[in-house]
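[audit] Reproducing an earlier prediction to check determinism. Same input, same settings, fresh worker. If the tokens differ from the archived copy the diff job will pick it up downstream; this log only records the rerun itself.
[audit] input (206 residues):
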Amino acid sequence: MNAPALPCEMWFDFASPYSYLAIERVGPLAHQAGVSVALRPFLLGPIFQAQGWNDSPFRLFPGKGAYMMRDIARLADKYGLAYRRPSQFPRMSVLSARVALLGQDQPWGRDFCLAVFRANFVDDQDIQDEAVVGAILDRLSLDRPALLAQARQESTKEALRRQVDRARELGIFGAPSLMVGREMFWGNDRLEDALQWAARGPAAQA
């Protein structure tokens, strides 16, 4: 009898294009590997600021940013995913992150996250705009007024701050980052490695 797989967490930022690629791919890959993946939204901005950066490294280093944009387009084509370069990058995503945090352990959470990523990286929409986020909630048949009101509450704002603090405690410095126990796998290109590690079960922690 095979040992049970280790649980896996995917930490992501809605402004991260590599997070978009990873979240689009993780569902079938995790199912194939027999691994459960919990989604953990957070904000990279405070992480970057703690490192002394006042902006995304892809804007601070234009050459790196230009390469990343081309790399994302190539990878989206490779995976057969729709992709449109956002007219604004990186986009503010605090509101989306708060709503995602409310749903991270709910059945609707994954669909909401996918819809937000597609709004940003396929439809080129402002995912900080309450109308955009509200329209996503409507399409998912969720309680738009209640969830937006809850997202504005101080308790939700504080919960997101704690989520960022937790990411920092785990040593997360970029997105997506996959945590399998104490083991961290950074980047869309490490998704398969993370799932294989988790599928090994307790032996991976020996």
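[audit] rerun output stored. Observation attached for the diff report: The two ends are 18 Å apart (CA to CA).
[audit] end
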